[in-house]
């Protein structure tokens, strides 16, 4: 006859009992999968403990029991069946043998059950199914050895009453079910057992049993149920004897169970053991005790009860306790690298609590530590989707941080092979050979744990790929004993904006020096900018427990706790890292009190209180240097990838603004796309929303924006509003005055708000009174402004900023350049009071605000403030010419022209074309200059703006002169002179007269050897003398200087050397006083030519050297060519023809390169004369080789007098002299815009 297999027998008995696999698995407390495998024969040798639990759940006895267990059929009371022996764990301990004498049989409703079926030996934990049958504890399928995790009150054999609420509700008497089958009796027992030892009001019992619709006789029914439950729990109590288990009290009932009678007591004993071990610094014992507690409580409280009982506050509190056991165990296991052990309980809890972020976070880290990164990331996505679908929220900080740890690989590395703890979902929990990771003994008293000195090691893992910061690391090293800080309590703060790498630097340095602090390293993230920052008392509690103080002994009072903390640190060398602090008072209680320890604090803003009161040293962390940023990318992406695209890598670092967080994020995204080019990623960042691109793919909270959000959320509302205004600043920085205009507040209030933002590193006071914003913060502030302030409010803010700049730029222009031609609408503006005390202050303001003014002009033109755009550009013309800021000059004129064309305003267009023509003239792009001058003249005539028309003709005349057409030049200048006189413009008339003098001098040069030469020289001198008188009359000292210089050259060419020298020297002094480096250079050259003719050879050469050096310093090629021509003439005059020819050829090359025909003619004439006189020693012949001795030299290559701006009116020479340094290159006399004093002034 075929003997049925174990699986077949089991299936037959299950069918006979009318149970499903799920029912039997639940009763026996084995997994459904394990039961299924046994029945299917896939597990051929099931564990004896599993079979015992199944037999008990099925109520098997006698032959049926023996057959299932594979034992001989009993002839009478069956002998005890010993549990199978298993190897001891790694640390040997004496085995605990099972008793050899069989226990007496017990009577059950179905017959006599051998003791072996319900009692497998001394010290074996038992558990019960809902029917009351006894079973071994799930997963406890081997004999145990004593460990420190043994509970002192383990129930042992099932003598007497046993009530179990951890899992299915059950009660048994001497190992037999107590017969509590009624739902009402089970509900009553459950609510009482949940609150063992406490009175449960009758009203509460009624609510659990019937809910909102109790029957009218509910109180009488409760009393009846209590009586019935007493009979079942105390069957031997006599009828009128007082109840010992279920007592009536005032208002309700109370159940009284000893510690051995309620399963929760054993768990509490293990938890107490874990707490004691943690206080003593014994994490291994604590972990084992928590594992033992978990094994006894793997199912939810009262899992088979109704919803009202499961949702009772006491049940909810116990459910939270169960979760905390799994979390605490996981923390200890993960800290020891036992990732698989941590994962087992976490999987069970995650199934019961799918929205618990703390559970999911730890499970992610555990899975990643086991090498299952994909599973960890999938878990994150699953939880995030459920949070969004069911609660409408995003993952919190803890889950996001775990996600980031997994992405970065900052997870515990397995330190030893560990098996997973048994969990209820594992198919192998009861299969052959399975063993729990933690061996928990039964009923073995634990030896007392001696107190040991505790050296906490709480530092987070060191930062992978840490790069740069060498200077900061050296400064931090100086804090160590022997580095200048010995004998003091060292406190240091590292502050900086969010994402700049404060924590990374602090943690990295702490790991570098941790051996210098042998008594431990404490760490806490104070979450200063998150909702609900860590309170000092909570941080102190954590530190004290880590230092060996029992949690129950930590004072509740902050001062007392801080005193105890300082006492614990006294005489010890401990490093305390306080991360992400928000305030000094959050930090101060956590500081050590005696020498030897060191506190390092990181914060997003300055903590001046710590510096003032506690002597802290402050380190302010900036973004990485460009080479450090590239090095960080190289370290993360690999050398080959970066070396293949060095330019793209550098650009990528720049787009991240060299912020470490941003760099790590883009590197993480590129690592996830190994086939993508760095240049493609750069293109995406440049084309799209850069802040949106600086986020880890699939995790927007791991982003630069998320770091900024925390800083912004911590600001009071006025500071938030000011921060948003910073996103509207067009230029690189802002003053309190400009910020006040944007925000619509006072400069004093704006300054205070900017100062507070700087304290929080949301702005940077890079110069006293000037605040800049990091590139990415500026983008972030702009996004906030777009989102929160609306288009109208932003438009009004920009209009106020334009008014602010115009109210200062226009008065500065009037004060510094009173003779520049301005648009009538610009001159009509008034500023009261005058914002500047003098010329020096006005020029300093323009220099400081230059880049802001340029950016504002561009921004105004783009945002429908076109009139303000061209007015501001108009006010800056003189300044840009004097400072020769040609790039900025180009930008503002282009923006002004676009704005004027958009509004079809002819006068504004004429002004912009005139400015662009002058700029092209400056760069010797004469064809472009002529085009703009011609267009300006036509538009000015259309607008009826006579002054601009005259200036445009004057400047166009200069182009004709450069082209070698002096007579055409004179014609245009004559027209311009007529227009100026008609309009009554004295300044314009003076400039044009001087230019006519230059033009007649050029004609005289061309007429050398003819009778016309003298006449043209006489005309030239007359024009220049009248121009000089007018310049002096209107106080245009700068143009007075150049006119004097031209007049001196004219006298020199007429042979009047003695009269020429004082004129040239006076011109030099005026050029120096007005700060005109260009006019000063040509004055030195003219003095050199005059002194050479007076016989002072060395003085002459010194003057030429100074002129040539100045021309080259300011980068004016035309001026350089003119000074070389003059030097060549002097060298020829002094009898040095070879050097003279060399200098003349240099001048010819430059003149040809820039297309200046007059200078080409002068250089060629000089070379011809030098060649003709090379063999002659006759002074008269040598003199003919000097172009300066020939008719009417052009003024440094410019025959037309340029109306460059004067710096101020006469009578303020001391201020002029101060403004002369540093020297700047002024515009050439290219007939740019006339410098005109406003008529109303």
Beta-sheet strand percentage? 5-15%
Radius of gyration from the alpha-carbon trace, in angstroms: 47 Å
Q: What do we call the CATH topology of the domain at 985-1201?
A: Serine Threonine Protein Phosphatase 5, Tetratricopeptide repeat
Head-to-tail CA distance between termini: 130 Å
Q: How many helix segments?
A: 55
Summarize the helices and strands and which ones pair or pack:
Elements: H1 6-17, H2 21-28, H3 32-40, H4 48-58, H5 62-69, E1 106-108, E2 111-113, H6 115-118, E3 126-128, E4 134-136, E5 161-164, E6 170-173, E7 176-177, H7 183-194, E8 200-201, H8 202-210, H9 218-233, E9 246-249, E10 252-255, H10 263-279, H11 283-295, H12 307-310, H13 313-335, H14 339-352, H15 357-369, H16 373-391, H17 397-408, H18 470-477, E11 490-495, H19 502-513, E12 521-525, H20 536-546, H21 558-569, E13 575-581, H22 584-587, E14 598-603, H23 608-614, E15 617-620, H24 626-637, H25 639-644, H26 646-655, H27 660-671, H28 678-687, H29 690-693, E16 695-696, E17 699-703, H30 704-713, H31 717-726, E18 733-734, H32 736-743, H33 747-759, E19 764-767, E20 770-772, H34 775-788, H35 790-816, H36 824-827, H37 839-862, H38 866-875, H39 877-883, H40 886-903, H41 906-922, H42 926-943, H43 946-962, H44 966-983, H45 986-1006, H46 1012-1034, H47 1037-1053, H48 1057-1074, H49 1077-1093, H50 1097-1114, H51 1117-1133, H52 1137-1154, H53 1157-1172, H54 1179-1184, H55 1213-1219
Helix pairs in contact: 1-3, 2-4, 7-9, 10-11, 11-13, 13-14, 13-15, 14-15, 15-16, 15-17, 16-17, 20-21, 24-26, 24-27, 26-28, 31-33, 31-34, 32-33, 32-35, 35-37, 35-38, 37-38, 37-40, 38-40, 40-41, 41-42, 41-43, 42-43, 43-44, 43-45, 44-45, 45-46, 45-47, 46-47, 47-48, 47-49, 48-49, 49-50, 49-51, 50-51, ...
């Amino acid at each position: 006859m075929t003997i049925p297999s174990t699986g077949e027998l089991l299936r037959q008995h299950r069918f006979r009992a009318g149970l499903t696999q799920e029912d039997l698995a639940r009763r026996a407390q084995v997994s459904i999968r394990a039961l299924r495998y046994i029945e299917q024969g896939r597990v051929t040798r099931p564990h004896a403990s599993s079979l015992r639990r199944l037999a008990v759940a099925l109520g098997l006895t006698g032959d049926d029991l023996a057959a299932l267990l594979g034992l001989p059929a009993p002839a009478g009371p069956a002998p005890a069946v010993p549990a199978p022996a298993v190897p001891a764990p790694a640390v040997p301990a004496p085995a605990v043998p099972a008793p050899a004498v069989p226990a007496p049989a017990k009577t059950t409703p179905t017959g006599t059950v051998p003791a072996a079926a319900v009692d497998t030996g001394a010290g074996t934990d038992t558990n019960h199914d809902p029917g009351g049958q006894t079973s071994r504890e799930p997963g406890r399928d081997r004999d145990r050895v004593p460990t420190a995790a043994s509970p002192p009150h383990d129930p042992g054999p099932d003598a007497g009453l046993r009530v179990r609420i951890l899992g299915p509700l059950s009660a048994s008497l001497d190992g037999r079910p107590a017969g509590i089958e009624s739902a009402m009796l089970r509900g009553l027992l459950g609510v009482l057992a949940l609150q063992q030892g406490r009175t449960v009001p009758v009203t509460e019992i009624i609510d659990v049993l019937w809910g909102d619709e109790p029957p009218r006789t509910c109180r009488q029914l409760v009393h009846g149920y209590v009586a019935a439950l007493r009979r079942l729990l105390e069957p031997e109590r006599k009828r009128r004897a007082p109840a010992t288990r279920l007592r009536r009290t005032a208002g309700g009932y109370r159940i009284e169970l000893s510690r051995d009678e309620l399963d929760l007591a054993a768990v509490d004993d293990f938890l107490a053991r874990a707490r004691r071990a943690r206080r003593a610094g014994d994490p291994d014992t604590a972990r084992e005790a928590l594992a033992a507690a978990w094994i006894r409580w793997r199912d939810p409280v009262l899992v088979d009860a109704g919803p009202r009982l499961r949702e009772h506050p006491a049940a909810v509190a116990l459910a939270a306790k169960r979760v905390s056991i799994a979390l605490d165990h996981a923390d200890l296991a993960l800290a020891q690298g036992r990732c698989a052990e941590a994962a087992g309980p976490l999987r069970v809890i995650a199934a019961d609590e799918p929205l618990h972020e703390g559970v999911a976070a730890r499970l992610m880290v555990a899975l990643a530590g086991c090498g299952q990164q994909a599973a960890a990331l999938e878990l994150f996505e699953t939880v995030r989707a459920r949070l969004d679908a069911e609660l409408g929220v995003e993952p919190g900080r803890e889950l996001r941080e775990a996600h980031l740890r997994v992405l970065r690989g900052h997870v515990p590395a397995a330190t030893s092979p560990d098996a997973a703890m048994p969990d209820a979902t594992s198919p192998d929990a009861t299969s052959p050979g399975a063993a729990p990771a933690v061996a928990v003994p039964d009923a073995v008293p634990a030896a007392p744990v001696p107190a040991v000195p505790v050296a906490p090691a709480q530092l987070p893992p060191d930062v992978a790929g840490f790069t740069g910061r060498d200077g900061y690391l050296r400064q931090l090293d100086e804090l160590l004993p022997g580095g200048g800080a010995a004998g003091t309590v060292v406190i240091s703060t590292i502050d900086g904006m969010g994402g700049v790498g404060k924590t990374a630097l602090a943690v990295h340095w702490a790991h570098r020096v941790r051996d210098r602090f042998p008594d431990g390293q404490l760490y806490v993230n104070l979450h200063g900018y998150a909702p609900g920052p860590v309170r000092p008392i909570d941080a102190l509690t954590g530190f004290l427990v880590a230092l060996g103080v029992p949690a129950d002994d930590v004072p509740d009072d902050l001062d007392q706790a801080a005193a105890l903390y300082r006492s614990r640190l006294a005489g010890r060398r401990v490093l305390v890292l306080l991360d992400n602090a928000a305030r000094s008072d959050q930090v101060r209680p956590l500081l050590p009190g005696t020498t030897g320890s060191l506190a390092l604090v990181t914060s997003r803003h300055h903590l001046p209180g710590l510096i003032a009161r506690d002597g802290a040293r402050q380190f302010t962390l900036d973004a990485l240097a460009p080479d450090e940023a590239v090095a960080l990318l190289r370290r993360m992406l690999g050398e080959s990838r970066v070396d293949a695209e060095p330019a793209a890598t550098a650009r990528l670092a720049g787009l991240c603004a060299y912020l470490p967080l941003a760099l790590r994020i883009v590197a993480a995204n590129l690592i996830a796309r190994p086939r993508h080019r760095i240049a493609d990623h750069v293109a995406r960042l440049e084309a799209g929303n850069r802040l949106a691109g600086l986020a880890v793919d699939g995790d927007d909270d791991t982003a630069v924006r998320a770091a900024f959000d925390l800083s912004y959320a911590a600001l009071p509302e006025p500071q938030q509003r000011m921060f948003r205004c910073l996103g509207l600043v067009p230029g690189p920085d802002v003053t309190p005055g400009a910020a006040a205009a944007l925000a619509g507040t006072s400069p004093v209030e704006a300054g205070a708000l900017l100062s507070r933002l700087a304290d929080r590193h949301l702005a940077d006071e890079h110069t006293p009174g000037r605040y800049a914003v990091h590139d990415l913060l500026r983008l972030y502030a702009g996004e906030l402004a777009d989102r929160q302030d609306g288009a109208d409010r932003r438009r009004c803010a920009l209009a106020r900023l334009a008014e602010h700049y115009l109210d200062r730029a226009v008065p500065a222009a009037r004060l510094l350049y009173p003779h520049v031609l301005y648009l009538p609408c610009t001159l009509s503006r008034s500023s009261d009071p005058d914002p500047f005390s003098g010329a020096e202050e006005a020029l300093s303001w323009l220099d400081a605000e230059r880049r802001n003014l340029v950016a504002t002009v561009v921004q105004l033109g783009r945002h429908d403030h076109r009139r303000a755009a061209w007015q501001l550009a108009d006010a800056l013309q003189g300044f840009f010419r004097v400072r020769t800021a040609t790039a900025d000059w180009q930008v503002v004129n282009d923006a002004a022209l676009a704005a004027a064309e958009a509004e079809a305003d002819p006068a504004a267009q004429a002004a912009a074309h005139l400015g662009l023509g002058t700029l092209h003239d400056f760069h010797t792009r004469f064809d472009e200059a002529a085009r703009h001058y011609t267009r300006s003249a036509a538009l000015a005539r259309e607008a009826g703006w006579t002054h601009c028309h005259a200036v445009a003709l004057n400047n166009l005349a200069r182009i004709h002169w450069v082209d070698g057409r002096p007579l055409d030049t004179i014609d245009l200048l004559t027209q311009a002179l007529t227009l100026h006189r008609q309009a009554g413009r004295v300044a314009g008339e003076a400039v044009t007269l001087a230019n006519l003098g230059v033009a007649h001098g050029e004609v005289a040069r061309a007429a050398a050897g003819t009778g016309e030469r003298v006449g043209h020289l006489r005309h030239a001198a007359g024009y220049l003398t009248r121009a000089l008188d007018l310049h002096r009359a209107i106080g245009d000292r700068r143009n007075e200087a150049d006119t004097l210089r031209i007049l001196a050259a004219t006298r020199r060419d007429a042979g009047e050397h003695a009269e020429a020298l004082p004129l040239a020297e006076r011109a030099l002094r005026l050029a120096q006083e007005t700060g005109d480096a260009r006019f000063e250079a040509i004055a030195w050259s003219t003095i050199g030519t005059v002194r050479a003719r007076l016989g002072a050879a060395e003085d002459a050469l010194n003057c030429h050297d100074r002129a040539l050096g100045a021309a080259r310093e300011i980068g004016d090629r035309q001026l350089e060519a003119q000074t070389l021509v003059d030097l060549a003439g002097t060298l020829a005059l002094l009898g040095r023809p070879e050097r003279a020819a060399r200098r003349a050829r240099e001048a010819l090359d430059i003149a040809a390169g820039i297309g200046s025909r007059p200078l080409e003619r002068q250089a060629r004439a000089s070379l011809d004369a030098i060649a003709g006189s090379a063999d002659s020693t006759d002074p008269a012949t040598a003199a003919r080789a000097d172009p300066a001795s020939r008719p009417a030299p052009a003024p440094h290559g410019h025959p037309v007098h340029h109306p460059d701006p004067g710096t101020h009116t006469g009578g303020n020479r001391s201020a002029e002299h101060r403004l002369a340094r540093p020297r700047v290159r002024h515009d050439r006399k290219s007939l740019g815009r006339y410098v005109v004093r406003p008529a109303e002034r």
